[in-house]
Amino acid sequence: MRKRPIGQKVEENASGEEETATQVCKSACLSVWDSFLLLDSQYSAQMAVCATKESTLAGMRPLMKLLEISCHGVPWILGALVLFFCSHKPSDIEVAFNMLIALLFDLVIVGALKIIFQRSRPSHNVMDMFMAPSVDKFSFPSGHATRSAMMGLFLCIHIISNRLLIGVTCVWALSVSISRILLGRHHIFDVVCGFCIGLLSYYMFLKAWVSQETILTYLDSYFGHVHL
């Protein structure tokens, strides 16, 4: 019978121990993550005080729905298109065009993340959202939170100059995000991450900002006859 070399046996034992240690580490990380998600679900359920007509603060549900509609993607995209077609100054056209691109950029990021993570919405959520696409059955991240953060920052930097209106815009963005939890649409973690992703997406988008000169160059026929 052929004997196995001693060195080879030591190497195999060491390799087995490393694999076992890796598996234990992965198992521990998954356990911690599952515990975190469970706590997130429990606290989210406690905060969903406007989720149904029988909830503790059901009377505030219409206000939460209004905030939901105020940050829906369709009205914002239509608004950006109207602003674009009704603008006459090159600077206004630049802002309107980039707002439209930023909104589309946000939709792509949120849609991709929802497909990747596929976290289910809270069990207490009543799925009665206005014009919700199929990907909206997933909860992470909150699209309203990303959009409110990105558009709030966009408005405050590029459109609004009045300090009072800037304050109102910031309150609106935060209120929309919080309403997602109170309305039972998302877990707390989905909203917090969504808001952070929205802020990060805005600064990522700035690197791809389309300049006024580029817009006028590629759309010269339109601007020359209608806008200018």
Automatic annotation (TrEMBL):
Membrane-spanning segments: 66-85, 97-117, 152-175, 187-206
GO MF, one example: sphingosine-1-phosphate phosphatase activity
Leader sequence residues: none
ATP-binding recorded as keyword: no
KW Transmembrane helix (keyword) present: yes
Annotated ranges, domain Phosphatidic acid phosphatase type 2/haloperoxidase: 95-206
Keyword annotations from UniProtKB, A to Z: Membrane, Transmembrane, Transmembrane helix
Name recorded for this polypeptide: Polyisoprenoid diphosphate/phosphate phosphohydrolase PLPP6-like
Protein species of origin: Biomphalaria glabrata
Species classification: Eukaryota, Metazoa, Spiralia, Lophotrochozoa, Mollusca
